[in-house]
């Protein structure tokens, strides 16, 4: 579909529908924010259902590993302090651990999300709220992933449209 010379393909439309549903469901469930839910849906939507499910799993695992890793860093900071030397050693080592673990369990595509989750929790969220935020980030990711999978499963793909068109009886004029 083209509007004003801009192409809006199936994946684009599915992404827009997913973001709409993420915001709506976040409002209905009274979530604190819909940012992570929407970002997860945007990153999860792929050209087909199989890749959408695969990437969604990677995204969830990445956010989960990042949230757990942030708790490990917080424990390290509470034990050894948050001095610059402690941060210089702990954060890179924990990031390396995340990368190695995600690779070990074959969730490579969750690496960026895991590291972003870790760093966001450590540096953007007040320390008194970090555990709560970590838990909510994983929950919001799960919501976004399920919305993306459902939208990608329910809405048509170019292949299903072509198949339906090919299977439809042709209208003959007598």
Automatic annotation (TrEMBL):
UniProt keywords (A-Z) are:
Cell membrane, Membrane, Transmembrane, Transmembrane helix
Q: Where in the cell is it found?
A: Cell membrane
Which InterPro entries does the protein's record reference? ArAE_1 (IPR010343)
Entries under Pfam families matching the protein? ArAE_1 (PF06081)
> Taxonomically, which superkingdom?
Bacteria
Q: Where are the transmembrane segments?
A: 12-29, 60-80, 86-103, 110-128, 134-155
What does the record list as coiled-coil region(s)?
none
Bilayer topology annotation = Multi-pass membrane protein
Q: Would the keyword Transmembrane be found if you checked this record's keyword annotation? A: yes
This protein's name: FUSC family protein
Origin species: Enterococcus diestrammenae
Classification from the root reads: Bacteria, Bacillati, Bacillota, Bacilli, Lactobacillales
């Amino acid at each position: 579909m083209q509007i004003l010379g801009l192409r809006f393909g199936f994946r684009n439309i599915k992404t827009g529908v997913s973001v709409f549903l993420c915001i709506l469901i976040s409002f209905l469930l009274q979530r604190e924010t819909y940012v992570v839910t929407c970002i997860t849906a945007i990153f999860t939507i792929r050209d087909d259902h199989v890749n959408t499910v695969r990437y969604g799993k990677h995204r969830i695992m990445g956010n989960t590993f990042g949230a757990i890793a942030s708790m490990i860093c917080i424990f390290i900071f509470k034990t050894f302090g948050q001095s610059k030397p402690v941060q210089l050693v702990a954060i890179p080592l924990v990031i390396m651990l995340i990368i190695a673990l995600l690779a070990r369990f074959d969730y490579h595509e969750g690496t960026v999300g895991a590291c972003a989750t870790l760093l966001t929790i450590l540096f953007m969220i007040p320390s008194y709220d970090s555990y709560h935020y970590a838990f909510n980030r994983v929950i919001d990711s799960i919501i976004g992933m399920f919305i993306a999978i459902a939208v990608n499963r329910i809405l048509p793909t170019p292949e299903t449209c072509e198949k339906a068109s090919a299977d439809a009886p042709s209208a003959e004029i007598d």
